[in-house]
Design brief:
By secondary structure, the chain is an alpha/beta fold. 35% of the residues lie in helices and 21% in strands.
């Protein structure tokens, strides 16, 4: 058991890749996704406690430089053996232990979040409480990808609004923006609405963003380049609608610099992108001290990743509806039970059981497994 000043040596790390088909394709400015190749990690300590983590990288390095096959190799050959070799003081120490290896935050988060789950289970407390969460329910928003037709988009939004979701996010890109937003506003009035660009625009599009001010969006998420904060500051100074940074923010230092430059008024935190729970807690602390709201972004996670997102979203700084939505929106059958459920009021109850608070469906995972391996000490 990991408690306070005790040390623990992990005895086993198991990697599994599954293919989980989506109910409906999900399209962003990067392209369409029909199924998710998801890497799962299960770790055990010497007392038999176990923890689960999920790698949120994409199949290709489009959202970030990390991708499925690269993360598999990084975890198997480098990061996993590092964790098996050294004793761990606590989950808080995992990030520092892996810090000599540069970048690879999604790979690191896969292992780091699993250790947090293991530690919470060993202590017999919910992960949300162990992280310092302050909520027993979270408010859920929904992310809707680019559709074949405007009519398809309107119908999908109608379904989600009727289901009770408190915020609607739609993906935008050049040619699927102004007129689409106009049609959504005309159909649904003053719903909480935001546009996620996934880096699809440049400063040449400032006038377009000014013309879209009339739609009263909550925010534009990552309108410019994935690695930029300087041009985002220029765009933010030219428009009233808040900019939310996603891909540009990897660390507490990134968050501080972006806020000081005026590059954003909102920050999206994704566990994989920032490297796990320790870094997520640090970023929301920086943002909270600067008066900047944060929210939890989604990466088409399976149930294990979704459970970790729920726990993270209970932290004090997460004051806006996030992308954590019901399992049934994405999967015919998830890999956890009970599946994530969203109430008609658009909320999700935070689990009260130890760790992530959901049971992992081993049989379902076995049915979906493409490959599996055990990591040994280097």
């Amino acid at each position: 058991m990991i408690v306070d000043n005790d040390h623990v040596k992990l005895r086993k790390i198991e990697l599994t890749e599954i293919n989980l088909p989506l109910i409906h394709f999900f399209e962003t400015s990067f392209g369409r996704t029909y199924e998710r190749r998801i890497i799962l990690v299960r770790i055990e300590d010497e007392d038999g406690n176990e923890g689960w983590g999920e790698c949120t990288c994409g199949e290709l390095p489009t959202y970030s430089s990390e991708w499925t096959d690269g993360c598999w190799a990084t975890i198997k050959q480098i990061l996993g053996p590092m964790l098996l070799k050294d004793e761990i003081d606590s989950a808080l120490g995992v990030w520092d232990l892996m810090s000599p290896m540069k970048g690879n935050r999604m790979s690191k988060a896969t292992l780091e979040t699993a250790v947090w789950d293991l530690e919470a289970k060993a202590l017999g407390v919910p992960l949300a409480k162990h992280l310092g969460g302050v909520r027993d329910e979270i408010v859920s928003g929904v992310s809707i990808g680019i559709q074949d037709t405007l009519e398809d988009l309107i119908e999908k939004i109608r379904v989600e609004v009727d289901a009770g979701y408190k915020r609607i996010k739609i993906k935008i890109k050049p040619g699927w923006d102004h007129d689409v937003l106009a049609a959504v506003r005309a159909e649904f009035g003053d719903i909480l609405l935001m546009g996620d660009a996934n880096s699809a625009y440049t400063l040449d599009d400032v006038e377009l963003f000014r013309r879209m001010e009339k739609f009263g969006l909550m925010m534009y998420e990552q309108p410019l380049s994935h690695d930029d904060i300087v041009d985002h500051a220029k765009l933010q100074s030219a428009i009233e609608t808040p900019i939310c940074l996603d891909e540009s923010i990897h660390s507490p230092a990134d968050a501080r610099k972006a806020i000081e430059l005026g590059a954003c008024r909102i920050i999206n935190i994704k566990l994989g992108r920032v490297g796990g729970h320790s870094e997520a807690r640090a970023i929301q602390k920086v943002a909270r001290e600067k008066g900047i709201p944060v929210w939890c972004g989604g990466m088409l996670e399976g149930g294990i990743g979704r459970a970790h997102n729920i726990a993270m979203s209970t932290l004090e700084g997460f004051t806006m509806p996030g992308d954590v939505s019901a399992s049934a929106r994405y999967w015919h059958e998830d890999i956890i039970e009970p599946e994530v459920f969203v109430s008609t009021e658009g909320t999700i109850d935070v689990p009260t059981g130890p760790g992530i608070g959901f049971e992992v469906k081993r049989g379902r995972i076995d049915d979906l497994t493409v490959k599996r391996c055990k990591i040994t000490e280097a």
